[in-house]
Amino acid sequence: MKFSSYSEKISQRIIVLGLIILTPLPALAVDNWSYNQDRDHSSNRTFSYAKSPLPPRGLYDYIRMEIVCKDNTLQVVVDADSFITSQGRTFNFEYQIDKKEPVGFQMKTFKDSKRRGYSEEFAKRVADDILTGQSIFIRVSTMLGSVLSGKISLENAAEPIKKVFSDCGISPTGGNAGEQAVYTLTDFEQDFKQLTPEQQQNVLNGIKKLIMEIR
C-alpha cells in the first residue's frame, strides 16, 4: 500500500510538471515609446512628454530619453539610474542617429536631481532627428569620468513625439513624404538660439531686407 501511494504521488507530480511545461507562457510586453501627461506639483500645471524604452538589458546602461513640452517650451531630457553630476551642473551629451555623424552638446541636471538632465536649446533638433531614424545611440559623460551609454529603438517614436510637438504648438521639420512642413515662430526662435552672435546679426539683417522688399 505504501509503495502504491508513493507511486501515485510521483505520477501526480509528473503530470503537474508536464502541464507547466506545455502551458504556453504569456507574451512578454514590448517596452516602447509612449505619450504621457503629468502634473508639476510646484506649479500645479500639466505637461506632456514622449518617453523612450530602455536599451537592451545587459548590453547598456539603464538610461532613457524624453521629449517634453512644459510651459510651452520643448525640452530633451535624459534620465539615468546612475549618478551623472551634481544638481544644476552641466555635462556632455552625445547622440548618433543610425550611422549618421554624432552630435554633441551640453545638458544640465535639474536642480533637484543628479540623474536627470535636460536641454531646451537643442530639443527641437534632437526630436526632429529622432523622427528620421531607426535607432539612436546616446552617451553621457559623468562627473566621475565614466560614460553611460545606450542604444534605443526609435520604432513607433513618431506618434508620441508629434503629440508633444502639437502640445507645444510646434511642427516637425520635414514631415512625411508629400507633406509641407510649416516653419513656425517657435521653430525660428529655437534655431536662432543655436547661432553665433555674428550669424544672428546676419539673419536679422536678411529679415530686415526681406521686409523692406515686401513693403
Plain-language structure description:
With 215 residues, this protein is an alpha+beta fold. Strand 3 (63-70) and strand 4 (73-80) form a beta hairpin. It has 2 domains: 34-179, Immunoglobulin-like, CATH 2.60.40; 183-215, no CATH class. It has a 9-stranded antiparallel β-sheet, covered by helices on one side. It has 5 helices and 9 strands; from the N terminus they run αβββββββαββααα. It has helices at residues 2-22, 123-130, 158-167, 185-193, 197-214, and strands spanning 34-40, 45-51, 63-70, 73-80, 90-97, 103-109, 116-119, 135-141, 147-153.
What gross morphology would you assign?
Answer: globular
User: Could you say how many structural domains there are in total?
Assistant: 2
Helix content: 25-40%
- What is the averaged pLDDT score? 83
Radius of gyration: 25 Å
**Strand order across the biggest sheet?**
1-2-3-4-7-6-5-8-9
What structural category do the secondary elements indicate?
A: alpha+beta
The string of secondary-structure elements, in order, is HEEEEEEEHEEHHH
CA-to-CA gap between the ends? Answer: 108 Å
Proportion of strand residues: 25-35%
What name does CATH use for the topology of the largest domain?
Immunoglobulin-like
Which CATH class of the largest domain? Mainly Beta
